[in-house]
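SAMPLE LOG
Freezer: B-3
Tube label: C17
Construct: single chain, 197 aa
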Amino acid sequence: MNIDSIIQWLLIFVPLALSPGPANILFAASGSSFGVKGSLPFWLGTNIVCIFQILFVGFGLGYVISAYPLFIEILKYIGILFLLYLAFKFFKMSVKKIEKIEPLSFKNGLIVEFLNVKFLIIPIIMFSQFYSAKNDSVTQFIILTISLSLLTMISNLIWILGGKVLISFVTSSNVQKVQGTIFGLMLCLTALWLAIG
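STRUCTURE (predicted):
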């Protein structure tokens, strides 16, 4: 990739990676509720699936998605139901003491990202715009996969840290309960947006 391609790649994918979405909202909520250390298992789970999603798209999942749109539609609605389940967990946080709520787990991260069909669009865009079979395709494939994986991991950490910074200003248990309600509502709105979108 030349410098122009790198700049184009950054201009496209940095905003996409940093934009609010189901996983990023959960990262902020987890960071504010459980801190960076408590959010790491969830972060690791989502990012392992991200890497596999990028690889699968690079190896032809885009074809499968276009050939079997019903599969993606089913995953979409399962993902919406899981987001509503996680919203319920944050609503519970708003009525219980925060110490009683368990942090989002590695398993939750795997499930959230596996069902996050919105993320699949990003590697599809990347490979369709920046991959060329004419050039050294293996090197390109590896560079694109590593680049998007690193960008995603860094973006997720930014959301976790942002949530952690938010909670450092908000230490009252009443405010934390309101925060649980707000994050729960945000997840419900995200689920609604995914359902009608």
